[in-house]
Amino acid sequence: MDQSQAPLLDALRDYHASDRYGFTPPGHRQGAGADPRVLAVLGREPFRNDVLASNGLDDRKSRNKFLSRAEDLMADAVGADTAFFSTCGSSLSVKAAMLAVAGGDRGGLLVTRDSHKSIVAGLIFSGVQPRWITPQWDRERHFSHPPSPEQVEDAWQRHPDAAGALIVSPSPYGTCADIGAIADICHKRNKPLIVDEAWGAHLPFHEDLPTWAMDAGADVCVVSVHKMGAGFEQGSVFHLQGDLVDPVRLSACADLLMTTSPNVMVYAALDGWRRQMVEHGHELLTAEIDLATYLRERLGDIPDLQVLEDELLGEEASCDLDTTQVLMDLSATGTSGYQAADWLREHCELDLGMSDHRRILATMSFADNKQTADRLVNAMTLWRKAADDFDRPPQLHLPAPAELQLETVALPRDAFFGPTEMVPADKAAGRIAAEQITPYPPGIPAVVPGERLNDAVIDYLRSGVDAGMNLPDPADPTAHQFRVVA
User: Fold this and answer.
1) Residue 27 carries which DSSP code?
2) Which of 36, 174, 236, 249 has CB atoms 3.0–4.6 Å from 322's, for a disulfide?
3) How many angstroms separate the CA atoms of 441 and 113, rounded?
């Protein structure tokens, strides 16, 4: 296919050139009705480009097929059979894949327990029974990795009737599973593998990055272009190959979840990013990888700051690593990642991608350059001097891996939608959770609806909040009370 084309972008250019006007939504009429105070902040251009996808950019029957042509070009660019664009993020894309593979009473779905909260939401919406795959666990660093092939095989042995498997790779920290081996394990049973590769949109375009899920044999792969590419927030693509997942069913499941008013700007940015990657991606990503190496070396010179790399690979760890995710362990300073993130934002105007009780994460982009990398190094150098005067953070009560694996005793949907009550933390152990509780970021739930709470996880969440942990989803984000099944 002619990868120099960008059907959605070209259609938007032609829309403006034709002086088209619509007596349709959106009501701001390309900014004519927007408050000048809004325009003073946002500018006019976002409103000019906010047009209807059908009966606006395209005609009322989408006869020009701008979207489908752009999706075909995306699939061709990365070697997938089919690509679907989403303007509701990978949160929608992964739910659509789950419904397509396991929706209805089809034996449940193997799901890695280090999944993002959007996957748990998919379990709640669909009523699918999760068959948990235990992730790999670094006991020393209190850190989970994607599951090994052996752990996936074990899950299949325990649940041979499951409809398919879903794993997350790369993790939010850049650690990657052996997708090829896991895909082979699934395909031996004629079952599909879904990979939530939200952090891997860039992987198809450079050989020095971890293997892209489609190249490794996955059946469905979900990527967030806004994370590691150059799309707007909420821009996601899910790819399909092979014959284990029906493309018509997958499209229909996405249609159930997606908005009927998609944002054309999100679509057009996906289209343009694909062309950019095909034409210039290799050189851009080479520069990004080299810059990440430079950044890691500079950060490694800061006292008591450990830039993790080899520690994330090997036994009880991951098989590959995206080194453009720069994960820093600060524990030798006696201060927390929460403190570092707050200090950097307040004193250096820098925001970090993730922080926890001992780490912070800098997510690199091909848009970065030596100046932005040096800015981070200088900020971390200033932080290190200031950290000597930080108050010691409250102690976080870290459960053993076995204690983190809560027992599932009810379907997530049944627990979430059934009768509930709030109970104080000291009365919650032994009760069945009716909500998900997710330290965010990275967004991996510590508690899933339908799991039986225990004292170790309750103490972990309560002490975590005291130490700076953010819990955006429970009814009581202070973790003094828990919503449980009545």
Assistant:
1) T
2) 174
3) 16
The angle subtended at Cα 230 by Cα 282 and Cα 35, nearest 5°, is 160
Residue ranges of domains in the chain, CATH in brackets: 7-275 (3.40.640.10), 282-388 (3.90.1150.10), 412-485 (3.90.105.10)
pTM of the model: 0.95
Residue-by-residue pLDDT tens, the chain, 486 positions: 999 999 999 999 999 999 899 999 999 999 999 999 999 999 999 999 999 999 999 999 999 999 999 999 999 999 999 999 999 999 999 999 999 999 987 789 999 998 999 999 999 999 999 999 988 888 778 888 899 999 999 999 999 999 999 999 999 889 999 999 999 999 999 999 999 999 999 999 999 999 999 999 999 999 999 999 999 999 999 999 999 999 999 999 999 999 999 999 999 999 999 999 999 999 999 999 999 999 999 999 999 999 999 988 876 667 899 999 999 999 999 999 999 999 999 999 999 989 999 999 999 999 999 999 999 999 999 999 999 999 999 988 988 888 888 999 999 999 999 999 999 999 999 999 999 999 988 889 999 999 999 999 999 999 999 999 999 999 999 999 999 999
